[in-house]
Write a structure and sequence with these properties.
464 residues; alpha/beta; Metallo-beta-lactamase, Chain A; Rossmann fold; 2 domains; seven-stranded mixed sheet; six-stranded mixed sheet; 14 helices; 21 strands; globular
């Protein structure tokens, strides 16, 4: 039995793990590499050699760094089943076509700018909208906590990871040579104070464990301190009547969590009801999916979201068209604009940053992880200016990094989750982390739990 680390090894994005036994080959996750100049090349080279031999795919959740190469699988000829929760499948129907649209649009822009020299090279997107939509037909829904058998030698159960709606911890029992080994893939684990979702499910045992380490070297701020910082960020820019607040947020998960927090703060009277604009068609559709699956979220969160979003007095306006989005540039103050992409690499958020980032009376709230190489990471790391649409934009707005709202577990939460195992797994691999972070997390595991852990490199394999 061999496990290969095709992505999210020595880095956060590109989640993809290949398991081979004598009778079956399958992937856990099939994610897009994001951030940095090498990402496009890594995405082009991914998957090419193994697609025809794959039997099925298990998908932990809908975020693009875990799911974004599914259309690439289709374009390379894969036609097997892809198993995911129902909520994940509904979110993918939003995310994957949008990912393809952005890829097609990027190629079109490069062709226009490069003229005939670029056009003659026949540049093509990683995959097309048609391929993304076709790949959705491969998705098969599974329920939390119910056993299913994608192959005669494989049994699986999905547990609630509490990361985003529909996110799962994947438990796999694989039989080979008359022996059964239990493999656990944490996916991305949520936090116990998530305003939208319950706590992550507990897992008690594994022969092999792949656990995320995105924030494995630090502790998030307390949720109370996080709320205080959001109040400061909003009131500092809006209460003065002079500025706007811009929130680059992932359309799936983070936007809905931030709305829930806003609803709570408004309900408590800690912030005035601002004019809230959701300027992301994908975030709007993801919010609709969330409202269809309220049974999966915290009951109080469901009540707060309904109160904020429904009814004639709702302060939230959903911005659908590009012309509506452009009209937000006319608002000089009093607006709280939530837009994507969450790492400021593209999308409508760039227009709002271009309009407001240079204004010291404005605030920019980053509620999500910013990967190395992204524009968002440069801003939170203190860049004095960033390039947007070919222009240098000075960074004068107040920048707030809200780590306590992260949908990723921090080091104390990860250690607490690992402490539920009755005994040390035979193999423990730290994935989904930048090398210094994973190394620090590994040292913490050794000190706290006495476990031996390994940090795999991308492209490496191990015999289990």
């Amino acid at each position: 039995m061999e496990l290969s680390f095709l992505g999210a090894a020595g880095e956060v994005t590109g989640s993809c793990f290949l398991l081979r036994t004598e009778s079956v080959r399958f992937l856990v996750d099939c994610g897009l590499f994001q951030g940095g100049r090498e990402a496009a090349g890594k995405n082009k080279r991914a998957l090419v050699s193994d697609v025809a031999q794959l039997d099925f795919v298990l998908l932990t959740h809908a975020h693009i760094d875990h799911s974004g190469l599914i259309p690439r699988l289709w374009s390379l000829g894969f036609r097997g089943p892809i198993y995911a929760t129902q909520a994940t499948i509904e979110l993918l129907s939003v995310l994957l076509p949008d990912s393809a649209y952005l890829a097609e649009a990027a190629v079109a822009r490069r062709t226009r700018r490069g003229g005939r020299a670029v056009a003659d090279q026949n540049p093509t997107p990683l995959y097309t909208v048609a391929e993304a939509e076709a790949s959705l037909s491969l998705l098969r829904p599974v329920r939390y906590d119910e056993s299913f058998q994608p192959h005669q030698s494989i049994r699986c159960v999905f547990r609630d990871a509490a990361h985003i709606l529909g996110a799962a911890i994947v438990e796999v029992w694989a039989e080979e040579h008359g022996r059964t080994r239990k493999l656990v893939f944490s996916g991305d684990l949520g936090t116990p104070h998530n305003p939208l979702l319950p706590d992550p499910a507990v897992v008690r045992s594994a022969d092999m464990l792949c656990v995320e380490s995105t924030y494995g070297n630090r502790a998030h701020r307390t949720f109370a301190a996080t709320l205080d910082e959001i109040v400061l960020a909003i009131n500092g820019s809006l209460a003065s009547g002079r500025g706007n607040v811009i929130v680059p947020a992932f359309a799936v998960g983070r936007t809905q969590e931030f709305l829930c927090v806003l609803a709570d703060l408004i309900d408590q009277g800690r912030v005035p009801p601002p004019r809230i604009f959701i300027d992301s068609p994908m975030a709007i559709r993801a919010t609709d999916v969330t409202l269809r699956h309220l049974a999966l979220i915290d009951p109080r969160a469901a009540t707060l979201l309904r109160r904020l979003l429904e009814g004639p007095r709702s302060p939230v306006r959903f911005v659908h068209t590009p012309s509506e989005s452009r009209s937000l540039a006319d608002i000089a103050h009093g607006a709280l604009i939530i837009s994507a992409s969450g790492m400021c690499e593209g999308g409508r958020i760039l227009h709002h940053l271009k309009q407001n980032l240079s204004r010291p009376e404005c605030g920019v709230i980053f509620p999500g992880f910013q990967a190395l190489g992204t524009r968002g990471r440069r801003i939170v790391d203190g860049a004095r200016s960033v390039t947007i649409h070919g222009e240098s934009v000075p960074v004068r707005a107040k920048i707030f990094t809200i780590g306590g709202l992260s949908a990723h577990a921090d080091q104390p939460t990860l250690l607490e989750w690992l402490a539920n195992f009755r005994e040390q797994p035979r193999h423990t691999f730290l994935v989904h982390g930048e090398p210094p972070v994973s190394e620090a997390f590994g040292e913490a595991i050794r000190e706290r739990l006495g476990w031996e852990v390994a940090i795999p490199a991308r492209g490496s394999s191990v015999i289990l």
